[in-house]
Design brief:
Layout lengths: L1 H88 L8 H5 L1
Amino acid sequence: PQTEDHSSRILHRKSKSFLPKMMSADMDAVDAENQVELEEKTRLINQVLELQHTLEDLSARVDAVKEENLKLKSENQVLGQYIENLMSASSVFQTTDTKSKRK
C-alpha cells in the first residue's frame, strides 16, 4: 500500500508540474482565439460604421435630388405658362379661319 501511495504522490506531483504548462498552452490558444475574434468584431464594427456613413450620404443626396426636382418642376410650370401666354398673344400662333379670309 505504501508503494501505491508513494507512486500516486509522484504521479500527482508530475501532473501538477505538467498542468501549468498545459494551462499555459491552452491559455495561449484561448488568447489567440480571442484576439482573432476581437479583430473580426472590430473589422465588422468598422464595416458597419462605414456602411452607416454611406447610407447617410446617399440619403442626403436623395433629399437634395428631390429638392432640385421640385424646383425644376416649378420652373417648368412657370416657363410652360409663359410660353402659353406668348403663343396666345401672338397672331402667328392664332388659329385661322380660312373660309372667312376667302370671302
